[in-house]
Amino acid sequence: MVKKTLDKDLDRIVQIEIQTLKATQTYKSLALALLFLLLVWVFAASVIGASEHSTLVIIAAIIGGYMALNIGANDVANNVGPAVGSKALTMGGALIIAAVFEAAGAIIAGGEVVSTIKKGIIDPAGMQDSQVFIWVMMSALFAAAAWVNIATWVGAPVSTTHAVVGGVMGAGIAAAGFSVVNWPTMYKIAASWVISPVMGGIIAAAFLAFIKFNIIYKEDKIAASKRWVPVLVAVMAGVFSSYLIMKGLKRVWQPDATTLIGLAVGVFAATYLIMRPLVAKAAAGMENRNKSVRALFTIPLILSAALLSFAHGANDVANAVGPLAAIVGTTASGAVEGKVGIPLWVMVIGAVGISAGLFLFGPKLIRTVGEQITKMNPMRAFCVALSAGITVLIASALGLPVSSTHIAVGAVFGVGFFREWITERRARELRAELRGTKIHPESNLPVEQEAETRISQKKKLVRRSHVMTIAAAWIITVPCAALLAAGIFLAISTFTG
């Protein structure tokens, strides 16, 4: 009795210590985030100098830095989460790779010119008062940042692009009425809430099925790996070369469709020729086990995480600094412009802010995406990464405004639900094949018990609670960001009177 009581008391002490350490880490992260925003203040003030609108621009820069922190905390998890969950990368390694490539993508290939009216959501003609336009952009940016912050706090990966879209729409309506909104564009964005995750999930599940039936379920897994792993890695290389050019290097180079396809085919062929002997060498002497096959996907998975991070930094940094650049441009010219260049100092704030947010707050969402939805391994995570690249390419070709966040998370769910389906199917096949046999040859369990055990695993492969939480967050992102932005704009209008 004494021992049991002592064990319970020790357990309570350990739990208290764990929670105390978590709280301390949270306070440290918040303090460092505030320090970053203070540095943004100093940096922006030193660049801008004394001018008529310097205070306004500095405030906007701080809000832009706040948005960049939240993008790093939430959005980047989709690129490295599966790699961490599969143990291909440690949390520290993932944070370093993502931070370096996100910053590199933002500074090297970030959008030189960004539409100040995000994705054509509102009509600039309905807002010619430059002061009103500045308040709209500032309200939209602050509302989007606040909403992504809330989503990160509850552990829901959301689309930062949709948050900015909702913010611009809400502030625009508050400023100029419903007629200023481009509703057909909004309908397309609403449709992407379904299209993005479904397409990502189907493609990821299809690749996992291909790997299962052509490698894992073969009698000689190593021979099958030598045949198909080079092909799959070559497909990834071809897809990611196109993805990188279309989404990450569009500022530097914009080739036509024929050139892009030719380049992708050339990269595919070159990668296949390189990978075939490398995979054969790596597979030599491997045991004929699933674990051996998974190891062959580890390095390609790490490379895909780096490339996804680069493309994300180049493409989504505009969510943090686009409205800020609009404010800077409008204060400088005194007129509302449809497009505006992004100054280098603004891009630096976005790039550094995304990396800082990733280090300070990113691990929570990385664990959600990589570990808490469904169990990952390098093979499954490879399918998720490949699905993300292919889905974006297909959507871009069709002109669909999909979200990379929705695609990646949908791909994770697709992999999990496919695992449930294939586990149940194989359990039923097992029961049919071994009917009349009392003991299963591998597990030494009664056949009925073995089959029922595999079927019952279905409930454990995907956490349904995360499905509902994430889906709900996706659906309400645009309206919540819109309401927040409208409220902030009305408050500013009332205060400035």
Through-space gap between termini: 72 Å
Query: What's the mean pLDDT score?
Result: 82
Helix content: over 70%
Number of strands: 2
Adjacency order of strands in the biggest sheet: 1-2
Q: In terms of topology, how is this protein built?
A:
Blueprint: H1 2-48, H2 54-74, H3 77-85, H4 91-109, E1 113-115, H5 130-154, H6 160-176, H7 183-216, H8 221-248, H9 257-283, H10 290-295, H11 298-333, E2 339-341, H12 344-372, H13 378-398, H14 404-433, H15 447-456, H16 458-461, H17 464-496
Antiparallel strand pairs: 1-2
Helix pairs in contact: 1-2, 1-12, 2-5, 2-11, 2-12, 3-4, 3-12, 3-13, 4-11, 4-12, 5-6, 5-11, 5-17, 6-17, 7-8, 7-13, 7-14, 8-9, 8-11, 8-13, 11-12, 11-13, 13-14, 14-15
Characterization of the model:
There is one protein chain. With 497 residues, the chain is mainly alpha-helical. The chain has one domain (2-496). The chain is 80% helix and 1% strand. It has 17 helices and 2 strands. The chain has helices at 2-48, 54-74, 77-85, 91-109, 130-154, 160-176, 183-216, 221-248, 257-283, 290-295, 298-333, 344-372, 378-398, 404-433, 447-456, 458-461, 464-496; strands spanning 113-115, 339-341. Helix 2 runs parallel beside helix 12 (344-372) and helix 4 (91-109) runs antiparallel to helix 12. The termini are far apart.
